[in-house]
From TrEMBL:
It comes from the Bacteria. It comes from Flagellimonas aurea. This is Coenzyme F420 hydrogenase/dehydrogenase, beta subunit C-terminal domain. Transmembrane segments: none annotated. Residues 183-352 form the Coenzyme F420 hydrogenase/dehydrogenase beta subunit C-terminal domain.
Amino acid sequence: MLSKVSTKELMDTVVKGGYCSGCGVCTASEGSVLKMGLTSNGNFEPYKSSSAASETHVVCPFANHDFNEDNISKKLFSNVDQIMREKEIGHFRSIYAGFVKEGDYRQKGSSGGGVSWLCAQLFNERKVDFIIHVKQSDNDKSDVFYEYDISSNLLELQEGAKSRYYPITLEKVLERIRNYPGKYAIVGVPCFIKGIQLLRFSEEVFKERIVHTVSIFCGHLKTTHYMDVLLNQFGVPKQELIKFDFRHKIPNRSASDYGTSILTTSNEKKVKLNKSLFGTNWGLNLFKLKACDYCDDVIGETADISFGDAWLPQYLDDAKGTNVIVVRNQYLDELIKKGVEEQTLFVEELSKEDLIKSQAGGFRHRREGLRHRLFLQDKNNEWRPQKRYSAQKLADEKRARIYENRIKMQEVSFSSKNHEDLSALKKELEPFIAINSKLNKVSLTKRIWNKIKRTFNWGQ
């Protein structure tokens, strides 16, 4: 039986400690008095909507429940035909790399177009009535630019293509699921999907109505300040913004060498290379939720299917993008194979080793780095979530300093009030970025050797 946590415990540990990812599943638990609100730091957190003395109990992906990702995925997938399991990546039935060949799914998607294509097939096969995914907000009075919404047809589905590096919450759509019968599929990052599964285990209404879960591989979640800083560098006020694209594909460049684009009210489109914009180096931890430093799920181990970017040498030259796909659900695996047979998809099998290589930085940060961060929290006698990996001080002093410096950069940017003043923000972060550059400096000889290995796929 899944144990919930009291509202008081949640607020005193997860929220107070800064471990909330803003998913909003705590608001959906039966009888919950919690609501989600956007903080001055640009992230969502729950707050009590009632002063009632009675305590309610809720689920949360960062609370210390009996169920972690291993327990959840075992319960969901251990009986799936041809299922396998590896410690690093959890359960899997198939692992692929590929892209959509039909229509403009690939062109409109951040990577290979796989997520939108799969959701379209669920509509076409009448397996779901609704898809829950992130779209641009159509509410002019809203404080947020993106939010979770519900699509009930293919036309609405197209509005949810592309990645949005922006805080969002499931609060409103989960209320819709509780109140309106139907078959739903949800697209989300790993911690959101974990929260959904906990909700499904705890209440029959969510178990019956949420019939498929789709996860996006996740580096980390950003605050609203990330978008503000990027927009600042375009010199465009937010009130003049019509569209914002975090993953603008640029022809004849590496798939990882993408840009950021905006469309203004004057119908002017502007594009800048990401590497020319301050703040886009994800290894610096800027505008990153603290919760993400205490998550050990890179690929969405509790979802029916997961999609990520194929950051591997054999796929990087294709600027149109290629997905890595991890399938745990038998029906969805058969759907992909059907797409291959009908020549609407191109996929090839990928080894589990290549899957890990494709997300090497993420796995390193959430395995090696996580152990060290847990050690630091325990050393300071501070509460932190229980994880599948034990606390351990890093013996490699240089690597330890890299992770500790990332924490400092995250803290400065997360709470900084300078996100609208780029020069002030840079000045505040400058000493930490300098330390990061020094610690990560690679010798010329090693850079040449790494380039040779990538060119000839040695060691791949």
